[in-house]
Design brief:
The complex is a heterodimer of chains A (302) and B (542). Chain A is mainly alpha-helical. Chain A is built from eleven helices and two strands. In chain A, strands 1-2 form a two-stranded antiparallel sheet. In chain A, helix 1 packs parallel to helix 9 and helix 7 runs antiparallel to helix 9. The chains are: A mainly alpha (302), B mainly alpha (542).
């Protein structure tokens, strides 16, 4: 039962801490404009990096943006890590293996959930006689299997290879801290324990059992390796949002709230409203250089 | 001295007269691939080493960062740096940048993708210290050491493993002036992080807290501009004299009698120039005047304080100075009652006025700002100017100022214009939003104290020089063919002028530089003699 509660806690912690990171950035004051082109939402111009500033008297014309173009670029970045693919292909292979593996493990988790619901509803997915002949059960079984197997292998290979590259490549080693190594190592170890568990039950029945336990709030049975895997995975889920591995949150802000955020301050606009609100905040502290002080000299030399 | 392959962020605090130096810089294309074609690197003078921080790479960018005379002074400077460090991470004292700063500070995966995009790193011969993340990592380690509690092993684990002493701080300050803030690296970051932003934040700590910034940017830059009206020191009477001279020059060169409108209340357009143009390249504001008059625009220049100089060096190193200047410049436009402020050929003025200052003003203080490029393209497109492109029958390439393309998204109009007036136009590779900086960005073009211009010409401008040579490979070794690098930005023009002089490219290979409007004026049908100096015979000048 303790194990079950721990799983609940780790899942909840992952979600809540991730949300709190998002909230921390969302609550920060509006910054000065710091966009960087290409900005994909610029309708008809995003491809080559143009903006509304290419229009004569742009401030008198309606602002034309394309949500589709923005989503297209977002999807390319989210699903394929486009920037790394274009700019550093050798690293992309490893990084993409890790990330695609994680996405597949996400799908695997969803499929375990679907499988658990299916079994709770009374349909057997797999028995001693083999995979059920019912199309739905077979579909759930095989999608779970393929997603879990490829996800686990890719994530293990990706995290292991990235760690190896970081340890051996002089240009990466110099900038890598103990914590950076630890992050990759932590993922790698969780995956290795996962592979050990999977080795004893290739059909992932243990996964569906855990899901059923979570859904019905009933104790789960776990042997030594599975207990260790669950504890490590839970700890990883609690740790990730507190580390820089929470870049799945940060990336939203770096792109949407900084690099692609080029909404102009036009009279009557939402931006203008926000600027007026911000203008009423008077900071209590200021900087110490002479030119910040009333009647101060220009520099330290004067 | 540590070689470029072995140096690491933790070395920044190590005692050494000079931490590292350049070994082999990036190769240049023909004809500069032969030995003896470029001036060699030089050693810093002993007197500089004693007085300033030459202990990074032997170059001195911050000519106000002098070595402390006493231990107390040294400690005081370190203390001030650390208090400035706290302030950049405070909502209260860094409201305008806290969000992008924290994102770039916290999330770097150290994948080094940014290095491949950086022209300084490439030009340095891939010297570790010029990787965009090197300085960011030094800042990170200092901050972690300063803010984190724990000590011992934990410190080392999170990367708080750097000595914080005067040498570390001073070298980091210098290293912040080895980045052109071109932000090309940020375009390639898989996480959307920005090392240039971190370099700028370091500059802010030095300027805003320690009162230390390169003289050309601060004392002789923003401070002088706020006091006299221009960072060039041109006062109102001097400006008016200059305009008179330009009018005479226009008449002499073109036969056109033009009265340049000054302080015309209620004009449609207030045109602003980088005042450096009036001093170094008066043919540029003259070309604007010829075009605007030819097209019959309702326009004016301003002789008001800060009205005749659109530069804003504050955006490179100090938020407060940037704001003060922008406030004054907008006030000039408001007082004149113009409909719009049009920015002339100055890249950083484009960014400063149109983008950086966009969230400083509301309501009555708001003034629409736009680049001259869409306006000029509109005039050409609508046949407001009678042009004969055959007058520009020589190879022309275009340098894209980072502030106009990457920071503002103005990419196509200048291409349409140049294609309309230059039949032998060829692009640089890469170009547009993926261009390389001229090497003079973020103040480097005007920082010439001691040996800093050598760093610019040999390293930060090296990639641009390579691009120029590549663009003209078909005719570069034929001095009979004049070639033109079009740089529609004052600072870029300054950096390119220096490249051409330093490597003797004009003398040896007939490569010239200038703005965009000069090419347009040169193509005007009714001009009997060429407008561009290098096309004029001696007799044209009499």
């Amino acid at each position: 039962m303790l194990l079950l509660i721990f799983i609940y806690i780790s899942l909840l912690a992952f979600i809540l801490i991730s949300l709190s990171v998002a909230l921390k950035y969302a609550k920060m004051p509006m910054h000065s404009r710091w966009e960087l082109y290409p900005v994909p939402k610029e309708k008809g111009r995003g491809e080559y990096g143009g903006s509304y500033y290419e229009e004569l008297k742009w401030y008198e014309k309606p602002r034309e943006t394309s949500l589709f173009a923005e989503l297209k670029d977002m999807v390319k970045e989210m699903l394929f890590i486009k920037n790394l693919f274009v700019n550093q292909r050798p690293l992309w292979w490893l990084s993409y293996a890790l990330h695609l593996g994680i996405y597949l493990l996400g799908l695997w988790t969803i499929m375990l959930f679907v499988g658990a619901v299916t079994e709770i509803a009374g349909m057997t997915i797999v028995s001693d006689a083999g995979v059920s002949s019912h199309w739905w059960a077979a579909l759930v079984y095989y999608v779970t299997f393929v997603a879990g197997a490829t996800g686990a292998i890719l994530t293990t290979l990706g995290s292991g290879a990235l760690l190896l590259r970081r340890v051996t490549m002089e240009s990466m080693k110099k900038y890598t801290t103990g914590q950076d190594y630890f992050n990759l190592l932590f993922i790698f170890i969780v995956l290795i324990t996962g592979l050990v568990v999977w080795g004893s039950d290739p059909a992932f029945n243990y996964g569906r059992e855990i899901m059923k336990g979570l859904l019905t709030f009933s104790p789960i049975t776990a042997d030594g390796p599975l207990t260790l895997h669950i504890i490590l995975l839970g700890l990883l889920l609690i740790y990730i949002p507190q580390s820089k591995m929470s870049h799945y949150v940060a990336k939203y802000f770096t792109f949407h709230k900084v690099l692609w955020e080029n909404d102009p301050n036009l009279p009557g606009s939402e931006i203008e409203k926000k600027i007026k609100e911000a203008a009423s905040i008077k900071p209590g502290k200021t900087w110490a250089a002479p030119h910040f002080q009333a009647g101060g000299s220009v520099s330290k030399d004067q | 001295m540590i070689n470029g392959k072995d140096i690491k962020p933790q070395d920044m605090g190590k005692p050494a007269e000079q931490l590292t130096k350049f070994a082999e810089l990036m190769d240049l294309p023909a004809p500069y691939n032969k030995p003896g074609m470029e001036p060699p690197l030089t050693e810093p003078k002993d007197a500089w080493k004693e007085k300033f921080c030459a202990s990074l790479d032997g170059y001195i960018g911050i000519d106000t960062l002098t070595r402390p005379a006493t231990k107390e002074e040294e400690e005081e400077q370190v203390k001030k740096f650390l208090s400035g460090l706290e302030k950049i991470f405070s909502n209260e004292t860094n409201r305008n940048f806290i969000q992008p700063l924290l994102l770039s500070f916290e999330y770097c995966a150290k994948c080094n993708t940014c290095s491949e995009a950086c022209h300084v790193f490439q030009a340095s011969g891939r010297h570790e210290m010029y990787r965009p993340i090197f300085r960011s990592e030094v800042l990170r380690r200092i901050a972690k050491k300063h803010f984190k509690k724990g000590g011992g092993l934990f410190e080392k684990f999170v990367g708080a493993d750097i000595d914080i002493n005067w040498e570390t701080i001073a070298r980091l300050g210098e290293l912040a002036y080895r980045c052109n803030l071109c932000r090309r690296c940020a375009q390639t970051c898989p996480l959307g992080l920005d090392n240039a932003l971190l370099a700028r934040e370091i500059r802010k700590i030095f300027s805003q807290e320690m009162g230390i910034a390169p003289k050309p940017l601060h004392e002789k830059g923003t401070v002088l501009q706020l006091k006299t009206g221009s960072s060039t020191g041109i006062t109102k009477p001097a400006f008016l004299d200059n305009i008179e001279f330009i009018e005479e020059d226009i008449e002499e060169k073109t036969g056109k009698k033009i009265k340049i409108p000054i302080d015309k209340k209620g004009a449609d357009i207030l045109l602003t120039h980088n005042a450096g143009e009036f001093m170094a390249w008066p043919e540029n504001p003259a070309a604007f005047a010829i075009i605007f008059e030819e097209a019959g625009l309702d326009w004016t220049l301003s002789s008001d304080l800060l009205g005749y100089d659109n530069v804003n060096y504050g955006i490179w190193y100090d938020d407060a100075q940037a704001k003060k200047i922008a406030l004054q410049q907008f006030k000039v436009a408001k007082d004149l009652g113009v409909n719009r402020l049009v920015l002339g050929e100055c890249g950083h003025a484009h960014k400063a006025a149109a983008v950086s200052a966009d969230r400083l003003f509301t309501g009555e203080d708001y003034v629409p700002r736009e680049s001259f490029l869409p306006l000029l393209w509109d005039l050409i497109k609508n046949n407001k100017l009678k042009l004969d492109p055959s007058k520009n029958s020589f190879p022309v390439t275009l340098h894209d100022p980072c502030n106009v393309v990457r920071m503002m998204g103005v990419v196509q109009p200048q291409r349409e214009i140049i294609k309309a007036v230059c039949p032998q136009f060829r692009e640089m590779t890469p170009h547009g939003v993926h261009n390389y900086c001229c090497g003079g960005g973020s103040g480097f073009a005007i920082m010439n104290a001691m040996n800093f211009s050598e760093f610019r010409n040999k390293v930060s401008a090296r990639m641009k020089f390579k691009q120029i040579l590549d663009a003209f490979q078909d005719t570069i070794e034929n001095p009979a063919v004049p070639k033109y690098v079009c740089a529609p930005c004052s600072n870029c023009k300054g950096a390119i002028r220096d490249i051409l002089e330093f490597y003797e490219v004009t003398d040896k290979f007939n490569v010239h530089y200038g703005g965009l409007v000069e090419l347009v004026v040169n193509a005007l049908v009714d001009l009997e003699k060429p407008y561009l100096e290098f096309l004029r015979d001696d007799e044209d000048d009499f």
